[in-house]
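So, could you explain the following?
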Amino acid sequence: MDDAGLSQGLTIRRARPEELAACAELYVRVLQETFTWLPKDRHRAEDFLAAAREEEVFVAVEDGRLLGLAALYRPQAFLHSLYVDARGRGVGKALLDYVIAAAGGRLQLKCQTANRGAQAFYLREGFRCTEAGEDGGVAWLRYVIG
């Protein structure tokens, strides 16, 4: 993994149970800031916490501060969440690389069609788009790697 721009103090690891509430807060905050095409009340901490019961949640932590999270649904090697509160520092790539390795090199995800920045990120990281669809009126694209 290329750690350029990352602090030596950055750690990627499995989230501890007592950290899940902070993860849910980060999830809601980042969604509200970046998913501007959706109503703000659509983003709920309860949704993250419910999904986390069946997923492996990984965190990026630096000096005790939560910088990002990723949630893997292992049975389908599906990246359900990747949210970063410190964009432009390589934290998202570090989390993604960690999850790809944890999933054995194969990973899939859905990205909302309106989320152009995320699409560009996944394409840069070697993912390819394999499918398009819609859930609840929200268009998405499926990306896979490996």
Q: What stands out?
A: Residues 10-106 form a domain with the Aminopeptidase fold (CATH 3.40.630.30). Confidence is low (pLDDT under 50) at residues 1-5.
